Structure formats: structure tokens, C-alpha cells
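Handout, page 2. Input:
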Amino acid sequence: MRLRVPVSVLVGVGLIVTGVAGRAAIQHWMDTRIVYPVDMPVSLAAGHIRTGPFRLNLYADYWVYVLPGTDQDWDKNHPDCQPYRHLQTRWVLYRDGRIIGRLEQPTVLPWPSGFRAGPGVYDLDVEVMSDFSCVDPAHPHLELAAQTENYESAAFAATLALLIGIYIGFALLIFVPIVRLVPSSDRSKAITESESIGQDFRRARKLPLRRPISGLPGFGLYAGMFFGLMALLQMLLTGGFRRTSKGLWVHLLRPDAVIQESDAWTEPLIVRVNDAGPGERPDLYVNSRRVAWEDLDRVLKQELGRRKEWVVYVAGDDDVAFEYVAEVIDLARGDQAKVFLITGDAGSGHGRTSESHVSQKRRDMGQP
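Output:
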């Protein structure tokens, strides 16, 4: 008698093999991607840094980092050699000897710059605009890093689907055959052999035969499998995609406090959000200069680049929705600045006082 393999067993084995092979293929693909194509020690003396040919095998955005290798102890022990916020660089990207990208406007630490590229062989020429060879003992290096968040999310989703397939495959391979192999109930029926009772089975033979009980009901098994699968998905989604709000960390400035100036020649950086009337977006002022909302990030970077201390004071009118003030705080914190929230008179007096104070200092020093 030829043994017939149930279809559920074949499907289960196929799902398990596909899941294991697919998971191994995804992991191999992710492991062979070049996430850090360049990581080399460099000198930060003024001049050019050539990386030499390097290969990319991932279509993604790439960040260019010039890392000085300094720490807090270095800043304390070397006050005259602090590249953070002062080191300026720009670069040119080549492929097959042709320029395919460049950074025209020099970037300042710690802001990285980047480009988008696909698989191929490239060469990067980084120009150090100012001489910071004094940090060479700290072993600075140049790093190129790919942004792989999208690929990691896709790999996670594909891996989750394959794990679900493996789970279903094991269920089909183990539980379904068990249900079918459970012995059916013995429904033996004794038929009397007594001659005193007449029995005519001719009519019974013409009736349709009822299907004997072949095992346990399958509804409970399939319902349990479905419930377990849904519970697994819920646990994965809850644990993997739950976001915890961290808020926006700011310092509060009392109304009677005096704004500290970073140096004698630079006024404090004050951003004010003024009410523009019902239904209108508030007006934005940076040190009494009106700025468009879409230009705020650029203006903050320019102003912070001119200062030794990265501190931003933010104030808003009482009638302004706090979401606009929070947007300014978020942009300032994104630029690694310390944010002080001015309370009281929305900071209007602080800006005028600081500007007049700087002007008075310049007059005292004989400067225009």
C-alpha cells in the first residue's frame, strides 16, 4: 500500500524551509552591505584629504563626518585649539574621474554634510578650510556612513513575515496530523442475532451513510493557532513600535534674570515669537530682525557659527500658541544649542538691552 503524505505536511515543510532560507538570505544581504565605506585617520592641517577609491554597494544617503577625536578634557586643557564649531570643511565627490557632487558652502562642526549615491566606485576630496593640525595628537579621522533605516525597516518586516510563515508551518506539520491521527470513537453497535426479532436491512442500505467521527473537531485547533498568531503580532508591534515621548528640555529664565553674553562683541541670540493677529501665523524675530519661518534653521546656524557659546533664548507672546514656540525650541536643540525659555514680557526688552549694551562697549573701545 502506497503511503500518501498529507497536503498539510507538505505545506508546513515548505513554509519552514522558505522561512529559514529567507531569513538567512536577508541576514547575509544585510551583513554584506558596506555601511561604513570610509573610516581613515587624517590630519586636520589646512589642505586637501583624498580618500582614494572606495566602493559602495547600497543605494542610500551618505553622511560625511570629520571627527576631531577631542573630548571635554581636551577642550579644558587646550583652550586655543578647539575645532568644535570652528573647523570648516567642504568636499568634492568623484566617480570615474567625473565630479558628481560637491559641497559648495563650507560646513562647520558638528553639522555633517551628505550626498545620495548608488553602487559604484567613488573618490572623495575633503578640503580643510582652517588649520587645526593642533588636534592631530587626538587622532582625528574621516568617516563616511550610510543611512540604512529604510533597509533595516524593510528587513524587519520581511523577517517578521517569514517568522509567521515558520510558525504556521510548524503548526501544520505537528498539530494538524495529531488531530487527524486521534482514534475515532468506537461506535460499535450490537446487532441482535435473535430470530424472534425480524430485521430487514434492505431499506437501510439505500439510506446515505453518515461520515464516521475521524478525530477531534478542528475549529478549536485553528482558532487557537489564529489567536496565538494575533497575540504574537500584537506583542511584536507593541514592543517594537511603541514611542515614548521625551519632551523638549529647556532652561527657564526668570523675569528678573540678566541674559549672559557670550563675549564682548556678540549680542545674545534671542528668538521672539510675536502674535500677528487671529488666524495668522506669528511673526518671528531673531535679535529684532524679522525672519521667515522657512529661513529660521538657516539663520540659527549662521548666528550660532559666529558665537563661542551656543545658547538660544526663546520668547513668545501670551496670545501665541505654544506649538510655535515649541517649533523654535526644537530647531534650536536640533542645532545642539542650549535653549533658555524667557518668561515674563516675551523678551522684547532683553533684545533691545543687549544690542544697546554691545554698542556702548564698542563706543568705549573706540570702535564704530
